[in-house]
Amino acid sequence: MTDTRRRVKVYTLNEDRQWDDRGTGHVSSAYVERLKGTSLLVRAESDGSLLLESKINPNTAYQKQQDTLIVWSEAENYDLALSFQEKAGCDEIWEKICQVQGKDPSVDITQELIDESEEERFDDMSSPGLELPHCELSRLEEVAELVASSLPSPLRREKLALALENEGYIRKLLEIFRVCEDLENREGLHHLYDIIKGIFLLNRTALFEVMFSEECIMDVIGCLEFDPSLPQPRRHREFLTTTARFKEVIPISDPELRQKIHQTYRVQYIQDMVLPTPSVFEENMLSTLHSFIFFNKVEIVGMLQDDEKFLTELFAQLTDEATDDDKRHELVNFLKEFCAFSQTLQPQNRDAFFKTLSNMGILPALEVILGMDDVLVRGAATDIFSYLVEYNPSMVREFVMQESQQNDDDILLINLIIEHMICDTDPELGGAVQLMGLLRTLVDPENMLATANKTEKTEFLSFFYKHCMHVLSAPLLANTTEEKPSKDDFQTCQLLALIVELLTFCVEHHTYHIKNYIINKDILRRVLVLTASQHAFLALCALRFMRKIIGLKDEFYNRYIMRNFLFEPVVKAFLNNGSRYNLINSAIIEMFEYVRVEDVKSLTAHIIENYWKALEDVDYVQTFKGLKLRYEQQRERQDNPKLDSMRSILRNHRFRRDARTLEDEEEMWFNTDEEDLEDGEAVVPPSDKMKSDEDLMDPISKFMERKKLKESEEVSKEVLTGKSSLSGRQSPSFKLSFSSSPKASLSPPTASLHPGSPGSPSSPGTGARSSPPTAAVTTKGGLVGLVDYPDDDEEDEDEEDADSKEESPPLSKKSKLSS
Fold first, then answer.
1. Residue range 295-344, pLDDT digits in tens
2. Where is the PP4R3 EVH1-like domain (predicted)?
3. What is the phi-psi region of residue 232: left when phi exceeds 0, alpha when psi lies from -120 to 50, beta otherwise?
């Protein structure tokens, strides 16, 4: 379909009163059997799919605006618009709509949304037209009353609008305004204010086009200065003509474009500053005014974007060293406003807009501007840069990676951004916060692309850590050479907090890049120096950074923390905080509680072995005593490394030897899971622990003795029958030994861990365990049962997990149940 007359864009009005572009296609009108009526059909020019199918309802109000727009509402909150490429196509469809509704195509609106009463309808039929009073000074009050009385009735509003259009009434009113102003006739000026405000409320595009024309708009603004409710008139025209000067930084050769820019600025001023706030009016009363501004902005951006000569000159002057500072400031502000206008564009149009700016060299131009000394120019350039980063971060990343091959690190665009962030002179660091947000967007892997032949994440992060990370961390490293921050003023602390927050973000999202950087540069030790700051927010930032690292449960990080004793500044901060119940206290306790709950064995041992004496008196929480208990359990497993296998064998008998029923004492042993003892309270008092262990060990020792007797009897029988091997599963042999340990204990079945040892599950490169796991049970009398059963280690762990999830009733109840 090549007929451009019928080429249209379909728009819908969203909840924010913004027009959303639904696509471009070609419109036609045809009878649709399913809808039982003539309908408007728009088929997409790309694939022929149906963008719009809308029945022309006889009672729907259609509006024709600006010669190329048709707007209507299909439901209470569903507004549609067709924007035609050519006026001829708009006229053709408009005639079709009017034909279906039985209207004269010369009107700009076919119906009104609100029905009138029957009495009004009768009156309107008897008086087909609305006659306006003769436009003269003495009859202004009569005109004002007529306008006010017409506003409540949709049909009367329609007739009033037609009368105002046909008789050129608005221009006559503005002539009287000039007379009244010369005569200082305050009463007449007040009537004119009411009349012009009422005309705005008619919400008609045709009237707006007259009022916003070059020769009328300033007089319209003048009428709106004389609000009867104010003692003195406003001075809007004075502001627009003297204060708000139009600066043509690059000569605009197109007079239509220049006029459109003037008109849009003034209409926007009327909407924002002159008219009362929208809440005063009925809903959607000024929707046409909003649409007028929206489509004007779209048109301005399109006309500027198509003018290659204009944009070429703009970027040439921006980057020219000979351009004076005032001129460059104006150029940058123009470009900033140009980008702000582009936010009204739909996504596909915005794509084309930023692609045009990219082709014109906006990023190299920004790099030059950001290197200048003028703070105002740099601020405007930062705003432009934020538009680009928010819209297309990949475009910015691609540019900086390409320029790194040609330029030194000092003049890279990202490093310029980091330097401006570091050197922000604002006491509240408003600019630094904005720039830090842009940096976070650029280094966020979530918005990075991955294609078949290249991975943006890998390439960009390698670039960033090689060329930019040292610039970002420089203030941190410079300020943390001693045990306390060398500068601890508020502004420096705010900057360091921003840097540490970004590093925390990197720890969460960048895995090995940030890990290598932290360990090689000893970043965590430097960050923890900030816990000694007098500003609590900075100390908390440092604690969040360490907490994020510990939360990864990465043994590389854990060994780094232990090797450098990095819990020491945390413990110092905790002790220096004293008994104060504040965020620092809570954050540090939560960090230690995480180590305890997650059973990070290497860190648990490190903390207790090095800092227990400093923390043992803290009894208002059970965290530290719980850590000590974890540590003691680990040590017991190390001292008695065969405890796990005992438990494994007992479990195997429980689940595999179905031929016999378990006795009560065995049931008590199996149902008392060490995990339950571990995962209950944070700390079990030693006396209670001893008692519970002793209660458990009595039946176990009896069971072990009976087991020994039974197994020896079985062996004797087999020897007598002459069998050389045991039938079924081979019964394990039990070896009994005595232990001089006076303390009876039941240790959880966990292998002893040392960072980097072969038994550590987190140690990199650890394969199969070098020796089969063993377990030991120490009874109250010192009797120890030892057994080697390497095949059941993994199975045993699974069974433990399953059992730990079940809630066991008290032992006394269980023994009754089993009996």
1. 888 888 888 888 878 888 888 888 888 888 788 888 888 899 888 888 87
2. 5-101
3. beta
Return the half-sphere exposure (C-beta side, CA atoms, 13 A cut-off) of residue 592.
Answer: 28
Distance in angstroms (rounded) separating the CA atoms of residues 624 and 215 = 82
Q: Per mean pLDDT, which range of 115-129, 130-144, 179-193, 467-481 is the poorest?
A: 115-129
Could you tell me if 577 and 532 are in contact, meaning their C-beta atoms sit under 8 angstroms apart?
A: no
- The candidate with the shortest Cα–Cα distance to 631, out of 549, 776, 752, is 752
Q: 């004119």: which residue's tokens?
A: 192
Q: What is the DSSP string of 759-806?
A: T-TTSTT--S-SS--EEEEE-TTSEEEEEE-GGGHHHHHHHHHHHHTS
Question: What is the rounded average pLDDT of the residues 240-268?
Answer: 86
Q: What is the pTM of this model?
A: 0.59
d(CA 457, CA 348): 26
- Most distant CA atoms of the chain, gap in Å: 137
Q: According to the model, what pLDDT value does residue 746 have?
A: 34
Beta strands 735-738; 50-55: pairing state? unpaired
Query: Can you list the pairs that 302-308 forms with residues at least 24 positions away whose Cβ atoms lie under 8 Å?
Result: 302/349, 303/254, 303/256, 303/257, 303/260, 304/257, 304/338, 305/352, 305/353, 305/356, 307/253, 307/254, 307/257
Q: Give the tens place of pLDDT for each residue, 699-719.
A: 455 555 555 555 555 545 444
**Count of C-beta atoms within a 10 Å radius of residue 777:** 26
CA atoms within 13 A on the CB side of 174: 19
